[in-house]
Model the fold of this input.
Amino acid sequence: MQRVAVIGLGPIGTRHANIYDEMEGAQLAAVCDIDKERADALAKVLKVPAFYDVPSLLETADLTMASVATGGREYGSDHHGPTMQALAAGLHVLCEKPISNEIAPAEEMVALAREKGLCFGVDLNHRFTPAARLAKRWVDEGRVGHQLFMNMAMWIHNLVSPPSGFRSRRCILTPSISCATSVATSLRFNVLVSRRRDAASTRQRSSTCGLPPAVSAT
Done:
């Protein structure tokens, strides 16, 4: 049974806490946020102690694991501190994505977890969405060719974000396809665009060389 504290109680951290409260194999033991009112409100609902800084949490609560769901710039700049503190205290850590906005702090977190023999995971939950699974299959089957990167916009349904209810996020996707809501659609679009560009380029080269076109634009 993992005794878990959630650090950072925005919408995602609150979801972590609610899930731990309901799931078998875990016991929500504490919540922590620098916003006292936010921490107290969730603690009251879930009937667990509230803390307002990580050192106090680690000194007082009986824990085996922590979820780090702090925010910061681009939702990644504030993960390093709480994660390092939790790992140093001997806790397994599940960290929200992105692990960090910079490579060096990310490497420090991984290195400390390895040194301590602790589990350190980064929540890439969109790997398991139907669109991401389909996109990954297309990559594995070679349907998109040799993928270097993808620059795409995705929209996440979020009713608390005014005014339209959708938050736009632009991200770069490597061949792992680790974050996507509309990846399959975007891949389809990019494949069609790429094929048509290749076809147009081939026709242009063929015309220049006086040769018949070798690639159809269909």
Remarks:
- Residues 183-209 form the longest helix (27 residues).
- The radius of gyration is 23 Å.
- Helices lie at 11-22, 36-46, 54-60, 80-88, 103-116, 130-140, 183-209.
- Strands lie at 2-7, 26-32, 50-51, 65-68, 92-96, 120-123, 150-157, 166-173.
